[in-house]
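Long-time lurker, first post. I've been practising inverse folding by hand and with some scripts of my own, and I keep getting stuck on stretches where the structure tokens seem ambiguous. Below is the full token string for one chain I'm working on. Before anyone asks, I'm not after the true native sequence, just a reasonable design that respects the backbone. If someone could post their per-position residues I'd love to compare against what I wrote down in my notebook.
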């Protein structure tokens, strides 16, 4: 973040924070990048205007990082990735290592996904020769939405607002689960998605 030319950050207990840049040019570079991630979690960025408020707005889609394990190299192109990933979300871009094809155990890609949806732990597809393929999928982080306050990043049992509403006493909250690339909150038995994909040159 220091490389982005940030001068200061004003934070609140909840809701948006205000980021001041050292120059307008550095601010515009960050805005043009579109999707920002901090600690493997998406950061929603909006430019400040005279009409802007510090009210937290509802978010319907967020970017996440997904790993497609043991995906054959011929499917590491933009066209193939777009088709393979569309059952989970919208393909945005590969990470630098995947783009350079320097680590081939998995392809790591950014996807734009709907908040509150189920996340498949595998994707099945058929190539142009009729061969079936099944790719295991893990996620660096998946979005969760609270049914009480509608906020992101926690569920009902961990919601402070929900605890305050129960007989006026804070409700005991379990520690929030930590997600990593190999342990994901994916329902068991989630059905695989089947589609047809043609092989292309890597990125």
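-- Answer (accepted) --
I ran through it position by position. Result:
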């Amino acid at each position: 973040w220091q490389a982005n030319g940030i001068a200061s950050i004003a934070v609140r207990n909840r809701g948006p924070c205000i980021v001041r840049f050292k120059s307008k040019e550095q601010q515009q570079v960050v805005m043009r990048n579109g999707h920002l991630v901090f600690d493997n979690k998406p950061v929603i960025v909006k430019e400040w205007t005279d009409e802007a408020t510090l009210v937290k707005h509802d978010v319907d889609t967020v970017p996440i990082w997904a790993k497609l394990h043991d995906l054959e190299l011929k499917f590491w192109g933009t066209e193939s990735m777009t088709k393979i990933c569309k059952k989970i979300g919208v393909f945005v871009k590969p990470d630098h290592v995947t783009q350079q094809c320097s680590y081939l155990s998995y392809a790591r890609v950014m996807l734009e996904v709907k908040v509150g949806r189920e996340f498949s732990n595998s994707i099945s597809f058929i190539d142009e020769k009729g061969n079936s393929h099944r790719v295991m999928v893990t996620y660096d982080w998946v979005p969760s939405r609270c049914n009480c306050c509608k906020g992101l990043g926690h569920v009902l049992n961990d919601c402070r607002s929900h605890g305050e509403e129960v007989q006026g006493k804070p409700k005991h909250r379990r520690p929030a689960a930590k997600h990593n690339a190999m342990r994901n909150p994916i329902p068991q038995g989630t059905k695989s998605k089947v589609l047809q994909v043609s092989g292309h040159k890597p990125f």
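A couple of notes from the structure itself: The chain has a mean pLDDT of 77. The helical segments are 24-33, 78-85, 96-100, 160-165. Happy to go over any region you disagree with.
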